[in-house]
From TrEMBL:
Name listed for the protein in its UniProt record: DUF2267 domain-containing protein
Source organism of this protein record: Corallococcus sicarius
Domain of life assignment: Bacteria
InterPro entries: DUF2267 (IPR018727), DUF2267_sf (IPR038282)
Region of interest (Disordered), residue spans: 1-36
Biased composition (Polar residues): 9-21
Length: 169
């Protein structure tokens, strides 16, 4: 097949499927991956804003990081790593920088009241006001992970926390 001039461009067109660009293939792939990652994360935050009635993406992000960090403190074994592996990349990156992850506390046994208190402290609010936020984050998380992973997490929680997990917003 002969190449044809592209009118007014000074370039030649090769095969119909061939793309002419100065951006290397690896860089284009990285850019597409970054775009998909960003879109997934934005959709996660939008869902959290809508369901949790949070006023901004920043509030949604703060809530997600707090609730996930507290949840991971409750999970034992490799379950926290299994959960993180299924979350949006940008959320995983935020959690790695979370103070609780920096300190690396061992898993603890606690229930609903303690979870609500820890989240309330992080978000500077009253513990009784955190339940809708925790439920919204749990709902957003469950939309991102497999049913099997959700069941595994539920199996590690005490009944009062399992109720929050099983009946998200």
């Amino acid at each position: 097949m002969a190449a044809h001039d592209i009118p007014g461009s000074g370039q030649q067109l090769g095969s119909p499927t061939q793309r002419r660009t100065s951006v290397p293939l690896d860089e284009r792939r990285r850019m597409r991956h970054e775009s998909r990652t960003s879109q997934t994360y934005k959709a996660f935050l939008k869902y959290l804003c809508d369901v949790g009635k949070l006023p901004s993406e920043q509030a949604a992000e703060d809530a997600a990081v707090s609730v996930l960090c507290v949840l991971e403190q409750r999970l034992v074994g490799e379950e926290d790593k299994d959960l993180e592996a299924q979350l949006p990349m940008k959320l995983r990156e935020l959690m790695i920088r979370c103070d609780r992850h920096e300190a690396g506390p061992p898993p603890q046994k606690f229930g609903r009241a303690e979870m609500m208190s820890m989240v309330a402290e992080d978000l500077d609010m009253e513990p009784e006001d955190t339940e809708p936020i925790i439920r919204a984050v749990f709902s957003a998380i469950q939309a991102q992970i497999s049913t099997g992973e959700s069941d595994d997490i539920a199996g590690e929680l005490p009944p009062d926390l399992r109720d929050l997990w099983a009946r998200p917003a």
